[in-house]
Fold:
Amino acid sequence: MRKILTIMSATVLSIGILLPTQVSADEGINEKLGVPIIVYGANLSDSEKDSVKKSLDVAKEAEVEEISIDGSDLIKYIKGGDSKARMYSSAKITRQDEGKGLVINIVTEENITQVTPEMYANAMLTAGIEDAVVEVASPKKVTGHSALVGIYKAYEVSGEKLDKERTDVANDELNLATKFSEKSGVDKEKVGELLTEIKKQISEQNPATKEDVERIVSEQLKKLNIELSDTDRQMLVDLMDRIRELDIDFGKISEQLTDITSKIKDKIGEIDPGFWENVKDFFRDLANSVKSWFN
Structure:
């Protein structure tokens, strides 16, 4: 019984947003968008860095650019960051043609303890990063926040310029998402779904005032059966109102928001309403079989 439970749990939890398309050396170097950029946490030891390289399949790439991030990058890209912070989570960023969308894969899922693929995707869309394959890895358990810093730095290295106001809001969004899941008791997948659904409604309804945003937030909290304290609810309203005021082409990213929502629902078994019922039936039948062995 324990072995079967373990296998089923691993199956359910290992599903990511999308499986990234690996770019092999046989495909050559993309002269239009540049080579993949590998961003390493500066505090990795040599053996840990080798482990990250293996996790990110660096050897399969025709050519890569390798950079690192440290506390100085943290305070550059994240307001209120600690310059002495230790950085371990790393990422491989492969830019894609416009319209390809985001593909996020946490390849060391057991070591990224707070941030989900959906949280990364939401923050990246808010920051203005819309078309890329991003793979995240760490050789030890970390929250995963420094990977977002690495993604920002990779984009600047590749010649892009990110809007500081948008990255600040994106950072606050990621912090609030992890706060809800770690301290407010909301399931991580539900947090991702909540943020995405609110953004979808902002995209569709084009709210004109903060009161309109507050109504959307209340509707989605009720729809998803999520309870927040008055303080957390107000923080969410304030954040979404800041997102409303950003220069974001919501029509352009609407399809990506819909895709993120569908992947989250798939992960938690909501696309197939009978999924969890089938799981319960499986274990009930298994229990009955075990009983019959002893009768």
